[in-house]
Amino acid sequence: MDLSLPPKVTDRAFARLAEINETSTAPKALRVAVEGGGCSGFQYDIKLDDPAEDDLVIESSGQRVVVDRVSLPFLENAVIDFSEELIGARFIIENPNATASCGCGTSFSM
């Protein structure tokens, strides 16, 4: 799939992924997917995984972030980042396609 504006990944997100993979004997990619559900209609699923053949792979310094073909249209021009605050640390998605989102930031509507 060829998107005009694929998702972007920040240096901070790649750096955190590198820290996670540093202690692993089998480094994984960060998979970002969109699924139906959540309190706003769609929710993000973020996990460590191996890339599939038809995934979009975004790579920097040997670290990979992958997005499956079904999720790509939902993540067009989105920014995948990492946030570390007093209340916790997590990968976050800044999605310009979302018309509304829940308070926790993992659920959205379009």
UniProtKB/TrEMBL annotation:
Listed InterPro entries: ATAP, ATAP_core_dom, FeS_cluster_insertion_CS, HesB-like_dom_sf
Pfam families hit by this protein: Fe-S_biosyn
Residue ranges of domain Core in the record: 8-105
Gene3D superfamilies: HesB-like domain
UniProt protein name: Iron-sulfur cluster assembly accessory protein
Organism classification: Bacteria, Pseudomonadati, Pseudomonadota, Alphaproteobacteria, Rhodobacterales
